[in-house]
Amino acid sequence: MSAWQAGTSAPCFLAADLAALDAPVLCVVFDTEEEFDWNAPFSRGNRRVEALTWLAAGQRVLRRFGIVPCYLLDYPVATAPRTPEIFGPWLAAGECLVGAQLHPWVTPPDEEVVCPFNTFPCNLPPDLERRKLEVLTDAVAAALGVRPAIYKAGRYGIDIRREGTIADLGYLVDTSVVPHRSFAGSGGGPDFHGFPEQPFWSSPARRLLYLPVTQSVVGPFGSLARGTHGRFLFGAAMSRLHVPGALARLHLVERIMLTPEGTSLAEMCRLADAMLRNGAKVFTLSLHSPSLMPGGTPYAATREDCEALLARMEGFLEHFFGRMGGRATTPLALHRLALGEASDGAIRAGTPARMVSGAVAQHASGGVMVR
Fold it and tell me: For residue 199, which of 186, 187, 209 has the smallest C-alpha distance?
């Protein structure tokens, strides 16, 4: 069995065995990247990483809940002079993990035309995608002494038929899949309608664990938008008629992502509660690092916006660890559990620092707005 069944366009998924979990678990993932104007054309000149100095505010919130976040560094961040002084102490204390996020347009070699289509890594020639990822992987390792094992394709642009490229470079977990969404209309990106919401493998070889972005369709008529049916409901024709927005306002069908960016606290809690009722065990809260800096992203134009974003994140964490009885974990801990190499107790929130410091030693060797 391969990632894609012969003669069809439908991928084949194998659910990760996480039956040992007796409570919901949460990962926190930061897309740690350069700042740029999300409404402007893509440019190789986007290199500013001033938002790195604002990460400490988010780290303080997460530390209070015993969460070890994963920072997925892109090339401008990995090569920034201040990166070792920011992430080095957190890594040494077992308070974070680092991975890699491939933004092709700011990652050498600079051989492709910079255009929306080529900003999705899966649209690059396979050899060029591999060479860019090699450069990024080496840059992260050189900056922090930790070889990254967690990956995200920039703009969620992954093709699971190419997972060998990622796995061959030592990556164990991919975080690029966004269930119930297509990026085909955003410049030719992937279509994830029909992909699982929970962790999965693409083949019995279990080379790469896919940890999807937590997004689901909730509401009394949510089943109408599940699987490939969502391609129609959330497609261009229905969107032009404002059907998805009308259904969401009526709370009949809501497509909600677990993020404090553009998502209210009530929506995040409603999403998590609904998924838990439906049997979900694994949740991932995602956000972009520049959203912690005023003006860094459209989600946080002002200091007040940043403070509100952090308040929403904190409010959700209180809900998850309180009412939902959840625990903190990391992508690498889930990978070990899915392979049968760890027990449920090994990924509980009570031992994040010890767990993650061990993971670093082992592997190192050390609403979506799309750009």
Answer: 209
pLDDT in tens, the chain (371 residues): 333 333 335 578 999 999 999 999 999 999 999 999 999 999 999 999 999 999 999 999 999 999 999 999 999 999 999 999 999 999 999 999 999 999 999 999 999 999 999 999 999 999 999 999 999 999 999 999 999 999 999 999 999 999 999 999 999 999 999 999 999 989 999 999 999 999 999 999 999 999 999 999 998 877 778 877 788 778 887 788 788 888 878 888 899 999 999 999 999 999 999 999 999 999 999 999 999 999 999 999 999 999 999 999 999 999 999 999 999 999 999 999 999 997 666 665 433 333 333 333 333 333 444 44
| CB distance 98 to 70 below 8 Å | yes
Contact (Cβ atoms closer than 8 angstroms) between residue 347 and residue 355? yes
Burial class (CB in 10 A: 0-12, 13-18, 19+), 78: buried
Q: How far apart are CA 245 and CA 251, in angstroms?
A: 10
- One-letter amino acid identity for 238? M
Compute the distance between CA of residue 36 and CA of residue 20 in angstroms, rounded to an integer.
42
| DSSP element (H, E) containing 310 | helix 303-321
Strand ranges (DSSP E) for the chain? 14-15, 25-32, 70-73, 97-102, 150-153, 173-174, 200-201, 209-210, 215-218, 254-257, 282-288, 327-328
* 319 closest CA partner among 272, 281, 251, 368: 272
Domains annotated for the chain, with CATH where assigned, are 14-213+265-363 (3.20.20.370), 215-257 (no CATH)
Burial (CB count <10 Å: 0-12, 13-18, 19+), residue 77: buried
Q: Would you give the distance in Å from CA 32 to the centre of its chain?
A: 11
0.85 surpassed by pTM: yes
SS3 243: helix
Only one residue has tokens 């909600």, namely 256
Q: Which residues contact 267 (CB under 8 A, 6 or more apart)?
A: 254, 256
Contact 213, 284 (CB under 8 A): yes
By the 10 Å C-beta count (0-12 exposed, 13-18 middle, 19+ buried), 271 is classed as buried
